[in-house]
Amino acid sequence: MAGEAAPRLLWRRLWRTPVLIGWLLLIVPMCLPHYLSGRELPGRFRRFCYARVCRIAGIRVRVSGRPLDGPGVLFAANHVSYIDIVALGAALDAHFVAKSEVARWPLFGHLARLSGSLFIDRDRRQALTQSSRLATHLSRGRRLCLFPEGTSSDGRQVLSFKSALFHGLTGAGACIQPVTVAYRNDPDARYAWHGEMTLVPHLLDILGRRGVEVELMFHPPVEPKAFASRKILARHVEQQVRAGLDGNPETAQVA
Fold first, then answer.
1. pLDDT tens digits, residue range 193-246?
2. Smaller CB count within 10 Å for the chain: N or C?
3. Is 248 exposed, middle or buried (0-12, 13-18, 19+ CB in 10 A)?
4. What's the angle, vertex CA 35, arms to CA 111 and CA 97, rounded to 5?
C-alpha cells in the first residue's frame, strides 16, 4: 500500500470523503427519534450503519470464532484505532464503552451518543464508581464492548489491561469474551491511530488507501466468578487477546 501511486490515493480520497460525510449526516436524522424518546436503536440497524461505513472506507471484516449470544456479555478487546469500533460494530450487537472525552468530539461524539455508547470517566479515583456502572448495565442485560488497555496502540502489541474496570463484575452475572482485533494486511501500521496523532489528517490518509482487512478473533468466554481476583481475571483476558494477535490463541495461560 505504501507504494501506491499518488493519483490513486487522491482519487479514492476525493470520492470517499464526501460519500462518508453524507452517510454520517444521513444517519443523524434517522436516529434522532429514538434518541429523543429514550429508546435504543435496533441492533440490526446499528450493524447496518457500521457495515456501510466499512464498505465506503474499504474495510473488510473477517470473523474468527463465535461471538457470544444472549444478554449481559462484556466483549473485551485490544484497541488499535477508531476503525476497531466500526469493524466491531458491524459484527456485534453491542454498545461501546468510551471515555468521556469522546462525547465532546465533533460529529463522532453525537454519533456515539445516538448509537447508545456508555461514557465513563477514566480517572483512577472514579474507577470503583465506573466499574459499578458497568456491572449495573450488564446485570440489566446490556451487551457492552470495552477496550481495557485504556488507550490505543500501534496494533503490533497488546498493552496491559487495566483491571479496575473489572471490579464488581462477579456479582453482575455477566460473561466476558476476549476479542483480538488484528489488522492483517497493514505492515506499516497506517491504520493504527495512537499517540499524538490527530483525527482528521489520519482519516483523510486512510480514505485514500486501498483498504484493510480487520480480523476479529472471538476467544472462549469466561465467567468472572471463576477467578480469585479482578487482577487475575484481567490478566487472563489480556493473555487470550495477546495470544490471538501472536497467532497462537490456544497457548494463552493465566500466569
1. 998 899 899 999 999 999 999 999 999 999 998 898 899 999 999 999 999 998
2. C
3. exposed
4. 50
C-alpha cell read off for 71: 444478554
Q: Which of helix, strand or coil describes residue 116? A: coil
Query: Using CA atoms, how far apart are residues 240 and 120, in angstroms rounded to an integer?
Result: 25
Residue 205: phi, psi to the nearest 5?
-65, -50
Contact call for residues 215 and 184 (beta carbons, < 8 A): yes
Average of per-residue pLDDT across 133-138: 90
Contact (Cβ atoms closer than 8 angstroms) between residue 149 and residue 159: yes
- The H or E element spanning position 246 is none
Residue with grid cell 490463541, as numbered in its chain: 249
Identify the H or E element spanning 207.
helix 199-207
Share of the chain above pLDDT 70, in %: 94
Q: Which phi and psi (to 5°) does residue 180 adopt?
A: -95, 130
- Helix (H) / strand (E) element for 26: namely helix 6-37
pLDDT digits (tens, 9 = 90+) for 83-96: 999 999 999 999 99
- The answer to whether residues 120 and 97 touch, using CB atoms and an 8 Å cutoff, is yes
Contact 145, 97 (CB under 8 A): yes
Question: Which grid cell sits at 49?
Answer: 450503519
Report the distance separating Cα 112 and Cα 16, nearest Å.
Answer: 21
Q: Are 236 and 221 in contact (CB under 8 A)?
A: no
